[in-house]
Specification:
The complex is a heterodimer of chains A (115) and B (115). Chain A has 115 residues and is mostly beta strands. Chain A is 0% helix and 49% strand. Chain B contains no helices and 12 strands. In chain B, the strands form 3 sheets. In chain B, strands 2, 5, 6, 10, 11 and 12 form a 6-stranded mixed beta sheet that branches. The radius of gyration of chain B is 14 Å and the shape is globular. The chains are: A mainly beta (115), B mainly beta (115).
Chain lengths: 115, 115
């Protein structure tokens, strides 16, 4: 079974540009999460999808960030326009719906550098 | 609000030394507790978890016990190896929507084991 995959692994852009990160969850996982780690600090929750619906987007920092999950499969996180403080590692995780499992499986992350 | 505090690193140990990484939490209700590990160049992996008070999670020689009275979930290993060198993250999971969803992480502790 393939794990959570993220693309690209690294992205370097200039301030003001747009970047789109992609996450492919484990097949069959209805729950998809985005997190980010900025400047070596704690990993912070951004939002949670159940299928294509946003269940909790309380961690989204501002309206420059837009997350989508059309069709309830892969998800994209767009940053437009990017600012210097957006640099960090963006992690995606997925979890199987139902049952007693509460384990989130993480992808390798996308390292975003805004110059 | 809900938060996790873990000891700052880096922690440098010699091979076969005893490891303790402290983690305390603040939370309303009864969250699940997790330790995730990030090896160099890789994504986050679940190391162990505990879902209720007095539960002990264990994996790969690592252990942590959910202590409600001290709000702690300290990570221990009796004899570390060079291959244990990684960043360790303590996290609590908030329950909503019928499952543990939003994870709140500590800042991470870098462990370096020297031969």
């Amino acid at each position: 079974e393939a794990g959570v995959t993220q693309f690209p692994s690294h992205s370097v852009i200039e301030k003001g540009q747009t970047v789109t990160l992609r996450c492919d969850p484990i097949s069959g996982h209805d729950n998809l999460y985005w997190y980010r780690r900025v400047m070596g600090k704690e990993i912070k929750f951004l939002l949670h999808f159940v299928k294509e619906s946003k269940q909790d987007e309380s961690g989204m920092p501002n309206n420059r960030f837009l997350a989508e999950r059309t069709g309830g499969t892969y998800s994209t996180l767009k940053v437009q326009p990017a600012e210097l403080e957006d640099s960090g590692v963006y992690f995606c995780a997925s979890r199987l719906q139902g049952g007693s499992t509460d384990t989130q499986y993480f992808g390798p992350g996308t390292r975003l550098t805004v110059l | 609000g809900d938060s996790v505090t873990q000891m700052e690193g880096p922690v440098t140990l010699s091979e076969e030394a005893f490891l303790t990484i402290n983690c305390t939490y603040t939370a309303t209700g009864y969250p699940s507790l997790f330790w995730y590990v990030q090896y160099p160049g890789e994504g986050l992996q679940l190391l162990l978890k505990a879902t209720k008070a007095d539960d002990k999670g264990s994996n790969k020689g690592f252990e942590a016990t959910y202590r409600k009275e001290t709000t702690s979930f300290h990570l221990e290993k009796g004899s570390v190896q060079v291959s244990d060198s990684a960043v360790y993250f303590c996290a609590l999971g908030l329950y909503y929507g019928g499952a543990t969803n939003k994870l709140i992480f500590g800042t991470g502790t870098l462990l370096a084991v020297q031969p």
